[in-house]
Amino acid sequence: MLSRINRQRTLIALVQVLGLSVWFSATAVVPSLRSEWGIGATAAVWLTASVQVGFVVGAVISTLFNLADRATPQNLLAASALGAAGCTAALACFDTGFGAAVPLRFLTGMFLAGVYPVGMKLMASWSPSTDRGRSFGILLAALTLGSALPHLISGVGPLPWKTVMMAAAGLTVAGAVVAFVLVRPGPHLAVRAITPNPRYALALLAERGPRLVSLGYFGHMWELYALWTWLSMFVVAGREVRGDGAAVSTGFIAFVAIGIAGALGCLLGGWASDRFGRSPAAVAALVISGTCCMASPIFFAAPTIVLVAFLFVWGAAVIADSGVFSTALSETTDPRFVGTALTAQTAVGFLLTVVTIQLVPVVADLIGWRYAFLLLAPGPLIGAVAMASLHAPQHHQFKEESHEHQLYTHDAVRRSDSAALTHCE
To answer: Which end of the chain is more exposed for a tag (fewer CB within 10 A), N or C?
Structure first.
């Protein structure tokens, strides 16, 4: 049984690596697109922001119809990955310019709303509460690697932007095949049939535990995707200030900071959340990443080796807590509606990313790239305060429909006590 659990966790993580490789596929080739299409910085922002908006819309639709809790998860995951791959391939094949690129990137984001949250639900289905933090850390490490893959592809050499995007689309198709053929839900998946009801998502606000976890997550998201989107520009601007040549490609630096450091951070965050508790692990990561935001002007024009070391720490810390939030929410929400709760949480979080992705270049135009990331610091600060409050007792009670479900919920609560989330029923 243990080998089957590990095999399924590995497959789910693999699907996330492959399926999410299209997320930043356009972002990684923005310099080429700006030159070929003759678009400015403001227009280029929408090549990333439209994916975020599409993800939010897709997540809202999924939440309203409770798709993540009603559809067969592996089939929904596979279909969504195929849709995202198709939109990315269409952009590369037809090359109809910026006017068509934004809608296609928007649709890509909509489809990805069926990849990431559903992957979280599947991982939770194979993970008891005692090691769910580590499992979600693995999942988020996979997400981070997948998101950074286009930077690695573009950093290999001067490849045409269409080649980079087609490669990302091909990887996502492979992820869809793996999901459909090999991935299956685990024994911790609630299989009780439910009727569509948007009010299930309101548990995020109505219950103290999910509310605090969501506030922590929102602060985390305020920082994360804006950093990922504009990290390369921050590096390029710093090089121009100190007059360095491009001895190490910007794409490679971005992959190391986002992909390698991020994956290690996720694994460390997942281990720490199981070892020390959800709240301490999240607070530590938020404090470190917030400190990096504040220190970013100091390292802006630092020598490349110093800058890369700083970005490695920041890249690890900024994502280390992401799996912790997913784990904590899955443990403080009615098991029947975990998919809906995770999707609703990510919808709001990604809506915030649209704001910061838009604001960072505006701030950079006003005060320079050296100080642009100071805008992100309030997010981790607010998130740390919210997660620190989870040390207090949480009163968590759902209206159960059967005695059997009451026993299931009591057992889940008892197991989560070891993760420093105290529930009083």
So the answer is: N
Question: Which residues of the chain carry a pLDDT beneath 50?
Answer: 193, 392-425
**Six token digits for residue 34:** 């700006």
Bridge partners, residue 423, by sequence:
394
**Contact status, residue 273 vs residue 133, Cβ threshold 8 Å:** yes
Per-residue pLDDT of 136-167, as tens digits, reads: 888 888 888 888 888 888 777 678 889 999 99
Is 126 strand, coil or helix? coil
End-to-end C-alpha distance for the chain, whole angstroms = 32
Q: φ, ψ for residue 304 (rounded to 5)?
A: -55, -45
Where in the chain are the domains? 2-184+198-424
The DSSP secondary-structure symbol of 256 reads: I
Cα–chain center distance at 97:
28
pLDDT tens figures, 253-286: 888 999 899 999 999 998 898 889 889 999 999 9
pTM across the whole model = 0.74
Mutual orientation of helices 338-367 and 41-64 as an angle, nearest 10°? 160
How far is CA 323 from each of CA 10, 137, 404, rounded to the nearest angstrom?
16, 5, 29
Calpha distance 346→117 (Å, rounded): 8
What b/e string do you get for 30-58 counting C-beta neighbours within 10 Å, with b at 16 or more?
Answer: bbbbbeeeebeeeebbbbbbbbbbbbbbb
CATH 1.20.1250.20 is right for the domain spanning 2-184+198-424: yes
Tokens 């040390």, residue located: 391
SS3 247: coil
For residue 236, give the amino acid letter: V
Q: How far is CA 418 from CA 132, 137, 421, in A?
A: 12, 17, 7
Spell out the alpha helix ranges (H) of 248-337: 250-254, 261-276, 278-299, 304-320, 322-332
Gap between the Cα atoms of 165 and 180, Å rounded: 23
- The total number of residues shown for the chain amounts to 425
DSSP notation for 154-217: HHHS---HHHHHHHHHHHHHHHHHHHHHH----TTS--------GGGGGHHHHSHHHHHHHHHH
Q: Identify whether the C-beta of residue 262 lies closer than 8 Å to the C-beta of residue 313.
A: no
Are 396 and 295 in contact by the 8 Å Cβ rule? The answer is no
Q: Is 235 helix (H, G, I), strand (E, B) or coil?
A: helix
